[in-house]
Design a protein that fits this description.
Helices cover 80% and strands 0% of the residues. The chain is mostly helical. The chain starts with a helix and ends with a helix.
């Protein structure tokens, strides 16, 4: 075995090791996601296949919600695209840590499997990222995500409705765990969270707005609120921050 192959294998093994905690977390979250898939009418195989092809909790939940509300294909695509838009930025940022000599195939695979956790661990690697490290994480994280969704949907078909309803709340807890820390660190984010909750509630109770289905509502509010935040409270780059 050459020195380069030994290095690649070492990186892959390290990725496997670092991916185990990620896989355990994915399993817990995706189990609740599987409950949401069951409520949307998907079979365990369908939900598991969805998680295998789309490693995105918010995107999948939005997709399952769109299916449950009988949204059109266009609405389903749009809401998934908007909710997962942050991965475009992560992929661009990750390219800065890749060797210019890295071929298109490796870049394609890394871009496809960009998630919050895998991105954070991959971009923290010193020097140029060896894609085998990320592949190692993917090999344990992706099955954890897929199997968790499959078992969650399977459990949803077996457990009583009250238990299923209780378990489905866990997914909302995950979203709260994501937004609250950011809200504590950034006043603008905390205001946007409150505004989002308020507008979402108004859309559901006001008669002249309640006709809009949940999927379209998510698309509209995401675009409107994020655009307003970008206009009135733009994030300053490092250069501008130093001048201020």
């Amino acid at each position: 075995m050459t020195e380069n192959n030994e290095s690649n294998f070492s990186e892959f093994k390290l990725g496997l090791k670092d991916g185990i905690p990620v896989a355990l977390g994915y399993f817990a979250v995706s189990f609740s996601l599987g409950i949401a898939a069951k409520k949307a009418g998907l079979t365990p195989f369908q939900s598991g296949l969805t998680s295998f092809l789309c490693s995105a909790s918010a995107g999948e939940y939005a997709g399952f919600d769109a299916i449950a509300s009988c949204a059109t294909i266009v609405e389903l695509v749009l809401v998934t695209l908007i909710v997962n838009a942050r991965y475009f930025l992560m992929s661009v940022a990750l390219t800065q840590n890749l060797s210019p000599k890295l071929n298109f195939f490796h870049r394609l695979v890394l871009g496809f499997y960009v998630t919050d956790e895998l991105f954070a661990l991959s971009i923290a690697r010193p020097k140029f990222l060896n894609p085998r490290y990320t592949y190692g994480m993917i090999c344990v994280a992706s099955p954890g995500w897929t199997i968790g969704t499959f078992l969650g949907t399977l459990a949803g078909n077996i457990l009583p409705d009250r238990v299923v309803s209780a378990l489905s709340v866990a997914l909302y807890g995950m979203f709260i765990a994501v937004i609250i820390p950011e809200g504590k660190k950034n006043r603008v984010v905390s205001i946007l969270i409150v505004v989002s909750f308020l507008l979402s509630y108004l859309f559901s109770v006001l008669e002249f707005l309640s006709f809009i289905n949940e999927t379209t509502r998510t698309i509209l509010l995401t675009v409107i609120i994020s655009s307003a935040a970008a206009i009135f409270a733009p994030v300053k780059d490092d250069a501008k921050s130093k001048k201020c």
